[in-house]
Model the fold of this input.
Amino acid sequence: MVVIRRKDGMDRETFLGHWTAAHPAYVAKLPGIRGYRQNIAIDHRKQWPWDGIAELMFDSVKDVAIAFDSPAAAALFKHEEDFLASTEWFIADEHDVDLFVPED
Done:
């Protein structure tokens, strides 16, 4: 997962054009990628500290390492320089929580 912030002075529409229209093609070229989800911060009167969260799905941590040591990752990072000011990465395990547990 990566939490992202757009470049200072870049308007929302320009940022979203880079991230939602152009960037997925770079992500799709990562070896071993199994899925990709963009979580876009809603337009709000308050300025959020982040503009979105991207979720990249792989089968294993080893697959993540292989993907981000590839030429495709170098191209992806180069593209991010066009529209991102900062990124904060972490690797997480997904856990579904059943919210509809029957009451006794």
Summary: The mean pLDDT is 95. The longest strand covers residues 35-40. The CA atoms of residues 47 and 54 lie 19 Å apart.
